[in-house]
Sequence to fold (433 residues):
Amino acid sequence: MAWNVFVIGHDDLSRRLLPTLRHAEDYAFHGLLPLNEAVHAQEYHFDRLVADALVELQRFPDPVDAIVGVWDFPTTALLPVLRDAMGHRGPTLEAVLKCEHKYWSRLEQAKAVPECVPAFQALDPFDDQAIDTLEVDYPFWIKPVKAHSSQLGFQIDNEQQLREALPQIRRGIGRFGQPLAEVCTHLDLPDELAEIDGHHCVVEQIISAGRQCTLEGYVQNGRMQLTGIIDSVRDTRHPSVLMRFEYPSALPDDVQARIIDISRRVMTHIGYDDAPFNIEFYHDDESDRIWLLEINPRLSRSHAPLFKLVDGAPHYQVMVDVALGMTPRMPHREGRYVVAAKQMLRVFQGGVVRRVPTAEEIRLVEAAYPGTLVELNVRNGMALESLLHQDSFSWELGVLFTGADSYQGLLERIRLCREGLPFVIAPPSGDGA
Fold:
């Protein structure tokens, strides 16, 4: 009999990838909560989402064997609450928030791996005297204690830039700040967080020199295990803007070994258990120093097709098997390709979408290079400014997953695929093309 696995925000990508797991016949996957409420919503009401999910689960006529999700907050916080209510294994809500709440996470990181943590402090963007409370020197990075995809994140070089950024942060911070405040009511927060609510920011020393990577791993029965390390390629003009993921990592073996050790130390300290996670790092080539950027209490959806292309299964395999209490049946280097990438299809000027790749154009690209997947985020007539979950400098029109037998071959394949996926963006006034 198949295990019943409920997937929060079950989307087209998960419907394509989950049936490709090893031993797929062992699982029956079911969606939990509509995508437009749990993920693509303008605002989130956490306790309402919990209540709605529990109604769905309790109405299910057969056993509910596992609950999983790949999305960022609030999915990451929903999982421990729902699993606890259903008697399932998984990390505690406290452990999840020690990853998710950026200021709390920095406090915990500083205790476990202080050599990897930049100077940081909390800042209240609504405090008229906030600038006077600064202890971190310019330049620095400011971001809400809860956001993702670099939303409301700014590099600040001087006081004038901070004065310009704070009104933007005030206008948008409540979207995640309010549901984070709801989540925090489920816990007794430590004294050091008593005054730091979801409407605060964290200010951090800039650590973005060198090469960025993400360790994907999991903890099971208290032991951290590696799934893989993925490199991140950033835009040269706007270092906060992500352009591409590449797998496997090209970092030297000794650097990867140190990253694995740091990850093990910090996740053990946090007490995170029985679930996947990922940690983003920078390695400064000149100083040979490793900096910890952030911890995510989930696997990365963006990396799943890369594991499928190189290893032979998406690392959803790890997520599902750990949730069911079994040793993950994840293959290694059994995929079609030697290297793989997720290429973001970005533009840096706003406007209105006048043309997107047709279904036939997408089919031809995917057929030309087996294993390639294309996802669109936009539709004809759409104003780019209406896109959710965008960074402060660009708009992601879609993404391309593909693989090749060499790195140069990969870059060439990306170029050819992009040529076959034409977009047209017009200025908001409708002038131009």
Summary: The mean pLDDT is 94. The CA atoms of residues 4 and 417 lie 37 Å apart. The first strand starts at residue 3 and ends at 8.
